[in-house]
Amino acid sequence: FALLAPAVSYAAAAPTKIIVGYAAINARVTPLWLTAELGILAKYGLQAEQIFLRGAPTLVAGMASGDIHFGRSGGSATLAAVGAGHDFKVIATFSSRNTYDLIARPGIRRAEDLRGKKIALTSIGGTSWMGVLLWLEHFGLDAQRDNIQLQAVGDQSVQMQSVESGIADAAALDGVFSTKLRQKGFTLLGEYSDLKQSIVGQAMVVPQAFLTRHADIAENYLKAEVEALAFAVAPKNKITVIKTIMKRLKTDANGAEEGYQDLLRGVDRKPFPSLEGMRNIQRMLKSRNPKIGELKAEDVIDGRIMRKLDESGFIDRAYAAQGVSLK
């Protein structure tokens, strides 16, 4: 981890430089962006380079090589990486529930009509793939049995375009994207709230080697994320958050409002690592990769920092500072 700048003890200590990778662009990533935009990272002595990587496999490779210290990724990519021999830990889960609507082309009226069709997603084995599989399971469908082709096309904006243009027949999309298609007459097959299973949609993942050597940096980083999360969900900050969403998602005010609602309903206020979510993902993944079935999901989770922040009252204070009560 040569990228870490040494902490300097004279006068003003130089900020510790970290690399944070993320593999999805949606409104639930807003707290990550806010940590930098609002100067919260600097408050904790950190200077982060935030890098967007198209697809979780690239992010995993970056963490495995030591080039990326923190990865905002999904549980499915993390479990797959651990199954492949990487020693990664999930130290927080920012989104542990489904946020994807299942939306299809106008000619598809019912879920059963997806048989023999193409569904767009970000990457095979990624979070959107997991969302699609959960929807298919919900409707009693099976990709292999029902000849449903899962196509990795890119992030959600690309998936939306591929459904709109007919390259794909359906996709599991956040409200900010599914609403645009619904307004054009596309079919909403399933609304996000219909799926109740826990997942690990967005987690903070770190290599065990980094966590062992730099637990203090990991703690400071999570403090910054928790503060940004509290800021993001506080009603008084809505205008600032909407502006960030408009800029980052390149959307208009209506799209940003939908993204803001995605954020509010999709993020966990106290982002403890979700063991139930990891077990659910393991159940879905092990048919593709028997090695993943042999893992202990609890070994992939390290909740010590989050427990410390909670028990010390840090999380409640962060929300109280924004006028939000978690009681």
Q: Topology of this structure?
A:
Layout: E1 16-22, H1 30-37, H2 40-43, E2 46-52, H3 56-65, E3 70-73, H4 75-83, E4 88-97, E5 101-104, E6 118-121, H5 127-138, E7 149-152, H6 156-165, E8 170-173, H7 175-182, E9 187-190, E10 198-207, H8 208-213, H9 215-233, H10 238-249, H11 253-266, H12 275-285, H13 290-293, H14 304-311, H15 314-320
Parallel strand pairs: 1-2, 1-3, 6-7, 6-8
Antiparallel strand pairs: 3-10, 4-10, 5-8, 5-9
Helix pairs in contact: 1-9, 4-12, 7-11, 9-15, 10-11
Query: What would you call the shape?
Result: globular
> How do the strands line up in the largest sheet?
2-1-3-10-4
Tally the beta strands: 10
Distance between the termini: 40 Å
Q: How would you characterize the largest beta sheet? A: 5 strands, mixed
Order of helices and strands: EHHEHEHEEEHEHEHEEHHHHHHHH
Number of helices: 15
Poorly predicted segments: 5-11
Helical content stands at: 40-55%
Helix/strand-derived category reads alpha/beta
Strand content: 15-25%
Nearest-angstrom radius of gyration?
Answer: 20 Å
Mean pLDDT: 91
Q: Would you summarize the structure shown here?
A:
By secondary structure, the protein is of the alpha/beta class. The chain is built from 15 helices and ten strands. The protein is globular.
Describe this structure in words.
- There is one protein chain.
- The protein is an alpha/beta fold and 327 residues long.
- It is built from 15 helices and ten strands.
- The radius of gyration is 20 Å and the shape is globular.
- It starts with 15 loop residues before the first strand and ends in a 7-residue tail after the last helix.
